[in-house]
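Lab meeting, action items carried over

1. Structure of the two-component assembly. Owner: GW. Status: complete.
Input record:
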Amino acid sequence: MAPPAQSHRSASPSQPSGKSEVSDLKSQLRQLAGNRAPGVDDSKRELFKKVISYMTIGIDVSSLFGEMVMCSATSDIVLKKMCYLYVGNYAKGNPDLALLTINFLQRDCKDVDPMIRGLALRSLCSLRVANLVEYLVGPLELGLKDNNSYVRMVAVIGVLKLYHISASTCVDEDFLATLKHLMLNDPDTQVVANCLSALQEIWSSEASTSEEASREREALLSKPVVYYFLNRIKEFSEWAQCLVLELVAKYVPSDSNEIFDIMNLLEDRLQHANGAVVLASIKVFMQLTLSMTDVHQQVYERIKAPLLTLVSSGSPEQSYAVLSHLHLLVIRAPYIFSEDYKHFYCQYNEPSYVKKLKLEMLTAVANESNTYEIVTELCEYAANVDIPIARESIRAVGKIALQQYDVNAIVDRLLQFLEMEKDYVTAEALVLVKDLLRKYPQWSHDCIAVVGNISSKNVQEPKAKAALIWMLGEYSQDMHDAPYILENLIENWDEEHSAEVRLHLLTAVMKCFFKRPPETQKALGAALAAGLADFHQDVHDRALFYYRLLQYNVSVAEHVVNPPKQAVSVFADTHSNEIKDRIFDEFNSLSVVYQKPSYMFTDKEHRGPFEFSDEHVNLSPGTESADTVVPAQRVDANDKDLLLSTAEKDEGRDASSNGSAYSAPSYDIAASQTQKESSISNSNIPGNTLPSSSAIDDLLGLGFPIETATTPTPPPLNLNQKAILDPGTFQQKWRQLPISLSQECSINPEGVASLTAPNALLRHMQSHSIHCIAQGGQPPNFKLFFFAQKAEESSTFLVECIINTSSAKTQIKIKADDQSASQAFSTLFQTALSKFGFP
Amino acid sequence: MISQFFVLSQRGDNIVFRDYRGEIQKGSAEIFFRKVKFWKEDGEGDAPPVFNVDGVSYFHVKVAGLLFVATTRVNVSPSLVLELLQRIARVIKDYLGVLNEDSLRKNFVLVYELLDEVIDFGYVQRTSTEVLKSYVFNEPIVVDAARLPPPGPGSIFMQGTKRMPGTAITKSVVANEPGGRKREEIFVDVIEKISITFSSSGYILTCEIDGTIQMKSYLTGNPEIRLALNEDLGIGRGGSSSHAGAVILDDCNFHESVHLDSFDVNRTLALVPPDGEFPVMNYRMTQVFKPPFRITALIEEAGSLKAEVIIKLHSAFSSSITANTVLIQMPLPSFTTRISFDLEPGAVGNTTDFNQANKRLEWGLKKIVGGSEHTLRAKLTFSQESHGNIVKEAGPVSMTFTIPMYNASGLQVKYLQIAKKSKTYNPYRWVRYVTQANSYVARL
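Predicted assembly:
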């Protein structure tokens, strides 16, 4: 029997059909409830199936709860299973009735058949009713000790379910210790894997309130535990292997021998047919070798072939997931993939989400040697029947042109696009030619000849029209018809719906006027009149502005509207390095597919069991050099536009030299956690301020002593040692708050001399309750961002700190929620900094 | 970790719906379906397999016209979830024999049983058809396989080769054959998909073969199997000393159960095949090979408002082999209004069509024997004068086909050895080859 057809898919119980059928079922179930005649199970099966099928399509059959439970007294396992499924679905909404099921479930938990025991225990724990928790504890305890691995497997997940119903019961009954014991001792690998999943989930959610939990969670990353898992990895199912590999990726080995041992052990995982296993292994390889530039490069080479194989085997969906990761790597290190460009050619039958990724990859890998072929290929796609892809391809050609390789040949091709009789091709090409001219004005002659032949009537898309109008204004001296075309456009002012186009029209006619006044004067007058009457505020304002400017002085107006321009050398990058690094840190997760770090699309509690570093320290392995640390402003403005843009190329090449700045993320959370004495107060500081820094203060005549004298002495400042701040908030605050203090200070020269990578400093500062959120740079200049919070209230301090290791000088800028406390904080900060490097 | 799993029909009905964690609000299936449906209408092409709506990530794979969907709020590995969805579909197919809407509706209780064991509270427990057997009690209700051709590579064997029992590949691993004991047999299919692009002058611009050695075992007692491939098989570019004629794969990967101990020595794979269908090995080859078809296409203006298209097709494989279900398509200029086709005299099993909606010429050939040549001429009528280059307005020509008992890479299964339980034990073994077009394109 099949679920009823779709007609009443969204049927609510109020719908007549659904309702009458449910009450029908109710009476039939009643009749069968007490019946023990032979063959009755078969009729029950049919009825149960009907109930489940209604449940599936969304008809509310919860009113049958009593009858279903009554019918469940049976030894037929198929019936039992259907009943369990039903009960699990509706118990939460019917807590009173759910009590009815406890009895038979508890009895089944003691059945001789382990399968019945397991099934019953699973259903018992799935009831999700808080006041039935007391009935769970006993069966769970037995289940965890059961001699059958199936029952133990179910019981372990049962503990996790219990935790979600009542966390306190789960913790108080000491189930976690049992799970930990099972994890390290059970012979069945699925039991072990379930323990790991459950403990990670529980400890992660407990960690914010319990120090013990966060210690336990970190202990999962200790060498003995990680090695215990690694040594058995092949006994685990492929899914559990992924779990183990995720854990290993967070492990920080003590030396390079360890790193190579782990990589050798996992080498054959790269040949696994399951893409999830391969990607999880790649993540381990990537993370382990972050600080070893050469080996890291070799890892890229090694994983190329397996990734390409996964992309071309399997379903389009699977291959998309892998391709997204390959895309990330290509964008990160395009030079490594520049010879593999043919693999990124689009196939005509691929879905457009795949083609889009491939086009971006082709753009990224283009270099001196392959540009010609790549552009030739992209030009083929421009005639594609798939119009969005055709457009993307033309844009890709433009981006490559802006990357400065073989511009000559590309300009020719772009001009050919303009001559193609497809309006979307012309439109895209126009926009590109405009960008190209802004960067390479020397091409204007060739371009203008072709652009001049385009009839503006054939250009309808606002962006393209605006581009054409811009060129008409900019090159009006070279385009014979320019004033007349503009005039024509102005005549149709009222039919032009896009404000962007009208704005461009105003500017273009102005520019044209300065170059060819007699021919343009009439058009200019008409444009200004139309602009002044325009209902759009910006258009109106611009027209008024031009009008008054012209009234005031024509040559000044020319200087304002059409000043000599410099060619644009680099177009702004849309995506900060900070964000790219975070996405890379979250390799093998949705972040890669969405091209966003997880904090942008998940709630805090759902960030997954592996987000260890997130709540405590925010260390993104620094790859940016000091001068490219991103002023956070741009980041969220561009969240939506994650396409990599034109400036990409140069960075790609930088990556090789920057490689040495990779540093393994520090996981030294334990150290800071256990250090309970980390709250420093002002009064504890010997001598209050350092000689060096106070000397500078005096020198600069900043007069801080006076300031402290006039204001009442602030209470001692205590910092919260477990302060939490996500990068988004940091960026927002940094943008909003004014600088309350900016000064220079010194640090211990011996300490700083050993500062080849900032990680040691980060740990040091963290022990003073000052946390790093981002860092970058290479010797001798490092740039770090720190934050701290007051212990008593959620008042935050933000610090930008630039360290020059050769001069042992530091520049700090402090921003604070509570401005009055910033001086006290500054002192704390400098004291902490000055102690760095002293044993 | 996933939150929900459900299967939707093409029209968006829930066929099965399982909520594992109860953390996603009601109506997720409707939200998902509406999003997928309108994605295309918004001009964005197909919905990607993973997308996020209001903090909920939706994963889906399309199998046999059904949507297999998982949801989560957590930042999980997308590969893991998509592999899992594909695996669930395969396990269900192993049980039901045929996977389609009808069979799923008939067996939804069994599917719930499977889902209960495969995932618990969102965590994968096990996905092996074999292991699951002892936990699943519903008998599959087998649907009539002949009525609906099953999807997937298995179906291609049903047309060409008569000696193959057509229903074999669609039989459930658990259901007993009506009126008899289980037949001991094992299928090894070498399935290759060709992607190739010819330039306008007929040169090969890019070519790739993506192959899978797929196994489906109905052997009781799980005997060990040895599968020997070409001894001179090379792996990795610039790897072994390649002599002429050797097959060199770029790369390959293997199923969990495969032991590679002797693979490096004599290219033999040893494995104990689990029940059900699974890929033993996936491989990829970009070494130049002889393409099964050569296409040459031409479009020329023939006076005002007229043009002529000539497509020539040459089959370059042995005459003992026949290609099936050949279809050639070519996009034409958007201002094409009418076509008159001109086939060769004596052509049989040819169909020609002009698809007005998307301005595409379609030429179908039921069968093509090796070593033959076929030509299609078509006269086009335009509604407007073409100003630009007409060649840029048309093409490229693309082709789909299936060639049973042929593979282009040259990879061979030299022998298939089954560890014998007794002298009389002699199960049926089927080793079959098939080649399909993935992206087979000739530019103008």
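2. GW to write a short summary for the group page. Key points so far: Chain B touches chain A through 95 residues (CB under 8 Å). Helices of chain B lie at 28-41, 78-96, 101-106, 108-118, 129-132, 157-160, 263-266, 390-393.
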